[in-house]
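Pair request: fold both.
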Amino acid sequence: MNPQTPHSPDVELLTRLGFAPGNPLMTEPRVLVDRSFLSRLRTELDETLDADTAHRVRSQIGLFHGLREGRRAVSRARDDVVGGVVSRPDTPSIAMTLLARGGCDGLEIHGEWPHSAEARATDHGGARNCVLAAGYTSGWLSEICGSTLVAVETECRAQGQARCAFVARPAEEWRARHDAEVEQFVDSLPFETFRTLLRENSARGLGLGAEGHSPLGATPWTAHVWGPVMVLPFQSSVTALRDLENDCGIRVVVVDLRTAYTNGLEEKSLRASLEKFLDHVSSWGVESVLAAPPPAVESLLPELRNGPHVARPTLPEAISTAFQIAHANRSGA
């Protein structure tokens, strides 16, 4: 675990599952609304963990994203006030409509998620479907209001209802209602642990806080393993790859090309570097999916040896495809 990561069972579990705070899955907002990814996420967690723990992990993934984005929105609004600038306000990655009653202290906020990607991603009913959205909304509203608000889902399309709706109240008010299921959800959200993590990493300039930069820019060589899938940033050299071994049951490697260094490299050199990189990954006996290739790389894909190569325009789409391939290979084994 990184030295800046607070010691916490919740953070340790997320890290073990591949959701460490610096993981692209915890900094890329599109994972929150990608229906295919959300479906695979639920399936993998349900197969790996018991129901309560899977529910807890999904809500915490949402909470971290919500706190991070809410923190960024507040910071940018504060900077606008100081600088006398009026800019377009940040909007949450998970769209929501809100109706506030009272103020941010001792109140309730009613709302709904009009697009409900999480509900559409599930093929079965039951309680607590939009828990990632509930975690996200809890974090985002809490940062915007400067309080600790918990959003609890009250209606869900996955249960055959007309909409996905929620009510947000202060955490202590939910606890005072003595609803065991709601209390369990409130207790699953480590607000202070995540706030400390975001604050400390922001102070260190690691890109997890209000500035909103990807940590891959500060620490470009980080491999993330999540179940049968590894997310691996592309490097023009394969030196670091030699230290990695496929001893974790990896079936598919997502090659993250968002950080591909192409400036100053001639096309021939870039092609050779990418082929060498992919050949090394292939030597592990796994398949690869290329994520978010920039134009300079995308134009080379049809010419690469050992093709055709599977490529997807965004990292969430690539990860979702990787899980589909891993699941198909496991089913066919």
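--- second member of the pair ---
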Amino acid sequence: MLRTKREIKVPMRAVSRSELPISRSWQAMSQSQQAVLKAKLGDLYLSYGATYVDTDPIQFPHRYRKSRDREVAGFVAAALAYGNVPTIKSDLERIFAALGPAPYEAVLSARADELLPSLGGFKHRFTTAKHMAWFLLVTKNVLSDFGSLKSLFLEGYSSDQPSIKESLIKFVDGFLGLDGRDIYCSV
């Protein structure tokens, strides 16, 4: 069971091995399998390259030099990466304009009474300014408690699992277990 520094217990859903996708860790692969995978990933990288980044929401984390800003930017971009790409990019521009040049610091210092007005009528498909404010304030709690989103993920990560599915479930449970109801009512 995950624990936050606030000692909030996160309920875990039991997952049987049969529900997990069949996959192997890099270490369990033979050298020839590793070489094949590395070659395929290299080909994919070359086929998309830097020009592809400009057409995708992944461009937003690439704007920042600090890894903590990239982490927050990537998380926000991923949260809104559904729908029409030009609309996604336009809506992300609004969010990142509100967060300013340092998303990590902006989220960490965010206050409910200031965040919602700064998002002024934001709407991305069915995600409203209130939803986005809640998301950013819960992210703030994760950053306050763990220092990074990665640290929350690693709390539930086990290298002996055949995939990261269980770790992702624990991450989401940990994220949602940070008493978001009070936050949602405050915005």
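Observation on the second member. The two ends are 29 Å apart (CA to CA).
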